[in-house]
Amino acid sequence: MSVTTTVHLNFRGQARAALEFYQSVFGGRLTVATYADAHRVQRPEEADQVIWGEVQSEAGFHVMAFDVPGDRAHDPGVEAVFVSVRGQDEDEIRGYWDKIVVGGTVREPLEPSGWAKLYGMVADQFGVIWVLDVMAPFEG
Length: 140
Prior knowledge:
Layout: E1 7-11, H1 15-26, E2 29-34, E3 50-56, E4 62-67, E5 82-87, H2 90-100, E6 105-111, E7 116-123, E8 129-135
Parallel strand pairs: 1-4, 5-8
Antiparallel strand pairs: 2-3, 3-4, 6-7, 7-8
Helix pairs in contact: 1-2
C-alpha cells in the first residue's frame, strides 16, 4: 500500500487559466471538469468554472485545482502554502524557472544558496508561491 500527496490549489474563477499556465511550464496532461460537467451548477455564471482539474506529467509533476463557488467563503491567505518543485537536474529546474516567473514576482532569484545548488522563490501571476530547487547532499 502507498500514498501520495498532491498540492490542491483553490481559486475564484482562475483555476482553468492557472492549470493551463502550469501545463505550459511543466508539460503533462491537463484534465478539467466543470461544474456543468458534474451537474453541480449553483450559479449560471459559474457553469464553466473548474470543479476539479489537474496537470500531471510523466516527469512527476502533479498539481490539482478548483474554483471555489461563490456561495462559499474563499480567502487565499498570506503565504499559506508554498509549492515546492525539487529536482536533480539544474538545466531542468532552470527551464521550469524561466517559465514560472513569467508575469510573476521573484522573491528570491534562482541561484546557489547555503543549502542548495540552486534555490529560488516566486509568486506566480496567480499569487501562488513556488519554490524551485536543486538540493545539495546533506551532511549533518
